[in-house]
Write a structure and sequence with these properties.
Blueprint lengths: L1 H4 L3 E4 L7 E4 L3 E5 L8 H8 L4 E4 L3 H8 L13 H12 L3 E8 L2 E11 L2 E9 L4 H15 L4 E5 L3 H4 L4 E4 H11 L15 H9 L3
Parallel strand pairs: 7-8
Antiparallel strand pairs: 1-2, 3-8, 3-9, 4-5, 5-6, 6-7
Length: 207
């Protein structure tokens, strides 16, 4: 947790690696919470509540899917040590998952670490079209309503950029992180399940 506060995050080189690397990129991917973009097609999926979205009901399962071949990951940086450490952080109320369900089947989701006013997104997966994107919409809405100021995505991908993700230099990220460490986010302050229409309303509200 102290490493996160200083701008570092851990990764393993591979699924079977027994060592971790601590990274602090020169450029950092983030989602400005007031700049999150929901494409029209995704907006329809969220509004119709096609997935049941839950919080913290299947944390380790989400992590394992994020590094699984079933979710399209031939290789992954999530090794057993990462699984053990983040599962422990989840039990302590620090790490959280947002999950998309189809009936009683987990079909998408994401997980990350919440410290003060920052949420450090770690990974996401999808077994059905838009399942992880819907979970991300729910995450952004939750963060905006519970006192968070920073959503860290570590690296910027084309997929995240289409949803409003941007890349900032390390100096700017450090300033955003310092401000977030002075805030007091309350990730679990909202109900576990919120309607899609409420999610979209929260996303479009400016701070």
């Amino acid at each position: 947790m102290q490493a996160y506060r200083l701008g570092f995050f851990p990764m393993a080189e591979a699924r079977d690696s027994d060592e971790l690397m601590w990274l602090k990129p020169k450029f950092r991917g983030i989602f400005p919470l007031d700049g999150f973009h929901v494409p029209r097609s995704l907006r329809k999926v969220v509004r119709q509540d096609r997935f049941t979205v839950k919080v913290d009901t299947a944390f380790e399962e989400v992590m394992r899917y994020c590094g699984s071949e079933e979710a399209g990951r031939e290789e992954t940086w999530i090794n057993e040590e990462i699984l053990e450490v983040y599962s422990a952080l989840h039990r302590e109320g620090v790490a959280h998952s947002v999950e998309s369900w189809r009936g009683d089947r987990l079909v998408g989701g994401l997980y990350g670490v919440a410290i003060q006013g920052a949420f450090f997104g770690e990974s996401m997966f999808s077994l059905e079209t838009d399942a992880s994107k819907v979970a991300l919409c729910h995450l952004v809405a939750r963060l905006k309503q519970t006192g968070f100021t920073l959503l860290d995505t570590q690296f910027l991908t084309p997929h995240l950029a289409r949803l409003g993700g941007i890349e900032v230099p390390s100096e700017e990220y450090s300033a955003l992180l310092a401000a977030a460490m002075k805030a007091e986010g309350r990730f679990t302050a909202l109900p576990d399940q919120i309607s899609g229409s409420s999610i979209l309303q929260a996303i479009t509200q400016t701070s």
